[in-house]
Amino acid sequence: MPPTVVVVIPARGGSKGVPAKNLAAVGGVPLVARAIRECRAARLVTDVVVSTDDAGIAAAARSAGAVVVRRPGEIAGDTATSEAAVLHAMDAYEAEHGARVDAVLLVQCTSPFIVREDIDGVAAAVVEGGADSALTVAPFHGFVWRDAEPEAHTTDGGHGVNHDKSFRPRRQDRPQDLLETGAAYAMDAAGFRTAGHRFFGRTELIRTDPARVLEIDDPHDLARARALAPLFDADRPGALPTTDDIDAVVLDFDGTQTDDRVLIDADGREIVAVHRGDGLGIAALRKAELKLLILSTEQNPVVAARARKLQVPVLHGIDRKDLALKQWCEETGTDPERVLYVGNDVNDLPCFDLVGWPVAVASAHDVVRGAARAVTATPGGSGAIREIAGWLLGPSL
């Protein structure tokens, strides 16, 4: 019988550096869903468990095919360790499935470019290679420096950590340093329970591609990841839709084509702001002969006026958007599985359940982003529809 190998992805809802970080989209996919996708594709992995205290992350995890374990508050704070989350998730998994875990992996979804080969590498080191623990590392050739400690009372300034500053050997003459990537760790489950720490016994180092090493800790890291995603995701298709996948695009209005704010004048008339780039994107989608529809619960002349400007049919003043969408698909002969629906709030969730490509804008409610199959990097009202048109028609749009 093959060993039971369980991946645990700790994903708290609280994040100070990047709000809702684990739901941030890279390459159109929330970080937690990217990690789940690669873990589920690994050869040796039995199950993927996401430990979270957040409803949006839980929705994203279930949508991506993971088991969700609700993390108690006492191990969900800023000082909680990843080890505590992994131990709790192991206990919950074993109690739920009535099976002993043989090896457990800790995978950090804030490493957006982790691949299934890395996951299998650390898992194989433990379940096939006899190691007690394993981690991903990348070759590192830099000289590391450290400031002098204040209590040292030295005037020498900084000193070398992995070198003597008075001697600068050539790169090829230095021992190879290896950088812990922070992406994936594997542990023998019984040994991990005893040690209470991810490193114990014989620790195997699994080398990975240094170009893919990136940990998202602040907004600049997230921006870099989004810029690199087209390069690293090119050989791993399926994250974003193309015109081969869909026949129709259905758009919510408030919060999707606008920023969800409304200005009201002295006479009670409402004014909203839209993005010219979205208009260009919708025109390109219309030119590509995709079916288009604006669907809104609001009975508002602003919605109708925008639809006329875009030359797009509109259904507004709708109580049940899902029923209206279902009827529209039947009347137009459109397979709901080939519909891309763009939304931002919880009243869009029933429509998400109907279509093959539910898409959330970056500013959407956390639960909506969690339920989406793809998420824009751009907020609603700031060019999100133009971004989606670029997915479908190519980045030159």
From TrEMBL:
Keyword hit for Oxidoreductase: no
Assembly: Homotetramer.
GO molecular function: hydrolase activity, acting on ester bonds; metal ion binding; N-acylneuraminate cytidylyltransferase activity
EC number assigned by the record: 2.7.7.43
Source lineage: Bacteria, Bacillati, Actinomycetota, Actinomycetes, Kitasatosporales
Organism this protein belongs to: Streptomyces natalensis ATCC 27448
Catalytic reactions on record: an N-acylneuraminate + CTP = a CMP-N-acyl-beta-neuraminate + diphosphate
Named cofactor requirement(s): Mg(2+)
Family the UniProt entry places it in: Belongs to the KdsC family. Belongs to the CMP-NeuNAc synthase family.
Keyword Magnesium on entry: yes
Region forming the signal peptide: none
Single biological process term from Gene Ontology: N-acetylneuraminate metabolic process
The protein, known as: N-acylneuraminate cytidylyltransferase
Ranges where the record places region Disordered: 151-172
